[in-house]
Amino acid sequence: MCFNFLRLHRVLILVGSICLLFLSTPAFAAERVVLKYGFFRESISVEELSTFSQTGELSRSLRVNLALARQDPKAIRQYLTKPVKVNPVFLDRVLNSQIGNIILDRISQVISTPSRRADRQALRAALVLSASQDRQVSLIEIIKNYPTNEVEVDGVVYRRRHRLQGAYRQLRRLQTNLQDLLGV
């Protein structure tokens, strides 16, 4: 009986949080993205990045920034848009576990708050909001739903792998953990 009450309580908290996030999204959604490539840092609008991820068309500033950072726009777009299917309720459960904290910490090495404070909480909120919209998550959705005005994205290539690719791989790992929990 106590276990059912706790489960119901947790679901009600999740639903309430999602409702609050939906009601407050315009006020707290990211508006600017700071692209970091080593010492190179440039701020662009989330709208610019979103348009690029949807259409493949580069704004002038994004084209210049990616060229200066020697980044392949096709690869960047692929990492931003490739979705991972998740169940929002189970996602919340996993994100509030030890393995979830490890995954959040790894993704926050790529997508973070400017102050590097409360990265887990901000990322958790962005992931749950993204999943609640269409039962899938992509990096561009996380960026768009990030609950700060500005979000930093580290695009450095490390050991021949793009950091965005690493963030996407962590999302896939999260999906695998959810499937394991569900026994799918």
Describe the overall structure:
The protein has 184 residues and is α+β, with helices and mostly antiparallel strands. Helix content is 62%, strand content 15%. It is built from 9 helices and 8 strands. It has helices at 2-28, 46-55, 60-68, 73-81, 88-95, 98-107, 119-134, 139-144, 163-182, and strands at 32-37, 40-45, 84-85, 111-112, 136-137, 150-154, 157-158, 161-162. Strands 2-1-6-4 form a 4-stranded mixed β-sheet. A two-stranded antiparallel ribbon has the order 3-5. The radius of gyration is 17 Å and the shape is globular. Mean pLDDT is 78; it is low at 2-6 and 14-27.
Structural class by helix and strand composition: alpha+beta
Shape: globular
The proportion of residues forming helix, as a percent range, comes to 55-70%
Average pLDDT for all residues: 78
Distance between the termini: 27 Å
Radius of gyration: 17 Å
Number of E-state strands = 8
For the biggest sheet, the summary is:
4 strands, mixed
Order of helices and strands: HEEHHHEHHEHEHEEEH
Helical element count?
9
Low-confidence stretches: 2-6, 14-27
Strand arrangement across the biggest beta sheet: 2-1-6-4
Strand content: 5-15%
